[in-house]
Amino acid sequence: MQSELSLEKQLEFAQIQENLAQQITLTDSRDFSQIQTVAGVDLAYWNAPDGKEHAVCCIVLIDMQTHDILETAEAAGEIAVPYCPGFLAFRELPLVEQAAAKLRQKPELYIFDGNGYLHPRHTGIAVHAALLLKTPSFGIAKTYYRVLDTDYTEPEQTAGSYTDIVIGGEVFGRALRTHDNVKPVFVSVGSGISLDTATALAMQLTEKESRIPLPTRLADLETHTARAALL
Description:
8 strands, about 25% strand, archaeoglobus fulgidus dsm 4304 fold
């Protein structure tokens, strides 16, 4: 059974996050209308017979214009850090980094199944990864991570509608409706990209089969296939 993350570790990780938050760039680092490749990242977990937790990280790189898959990469292993809200990146980044290193072509943008700036210390996994991989990124979460006891306001039911998630007078992210009358997703930047651009790209990359962008949808499907093969 997975142990709890100690208070000492939580304090250590929180300090790392406070330091990382100083490095975040909330503006576009390039012209994203010109990028050719984008990668989706997701992980799937399971418990081994000995009770230890394992995961596989899958990255799917697609062509921005055609949406064709260019390549995939994966990395699997034991998860060393227990689950604790707010510290997901410390659990997942070792496998993310290993999988990213296997890509032959460097993505121009990463999209994560998770949060970025929408985090108590503005350091969700998309932020950690953007700074570690030195590549712009943003996060798309399927469920809302309630930060500082703040709820979000439902956007209108039409595709492309959104509401900003404002906490303490600052915009942390957006609730975005990617199709008419479907549950919203939650967009937040990692670093090197603006929230407006991340929102526009999320809509551009979302196809009719799903409410989440194609890169993370493909990565999610790939994790299920990879986990089944490993088991």
